[in-house]
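Researcher: Here's a chain I'd like modeled. Treat it as a single chain, no partners, no ligands.
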Amino acid sequence: MRRLVLKMSMTVDGYVAGPEGEMDWVVRTSHPDGKAWVGRTLEGAGAHVIGRRLYSSFVGYWPTSTDPLAEAMNSIPKIVFSRSPDPDLPSAPGWEEPRVLGADLAGDVEALKAEPGKDLLAQGGVEFARSLVQAGLVDEYRLVVHPVVLGSGLALFDGAEPFDLDLIDAVRFPSGTQALTYRPN
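Model: Modeled as a single isolated chain. Structure tokens:
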């Protein structure tokens, strides 16, 4: 059975984006070792599970990116979740047509987990990630905590019921960023 892994960058005060969705702080505090860690996370992914808005954003960046992670980001199949039964998704050169799901988030994710293959990797956006958290669908959290305080913004765990996590792994990068891996207990 596949797992649903949620990888998100966040600040030390718990925000995954600024009040208007800004994420420039991620670039400021990145380090090549952190990028290599993300690369290893991508190697374990059999599919990107992604919301419609972030998919559209990815289409505008990854197909032509020279970033070292671009090959993995482009080659991993995409499964787009949308509240619309027939969303107007932009096409991406070199990408296969994404599967579109979303009528029943929990049922669809559980069906995907039952399929053979590598883990399912969700990377946001924040509303889609919150939906996964609130539905209790995440099997592993890979939280990249950046040494930044925003003071306000969009928090991953807004609206979630309390739950406990077990720390599985912690890696500190020279920039002060930490990759923390948790599993619900």
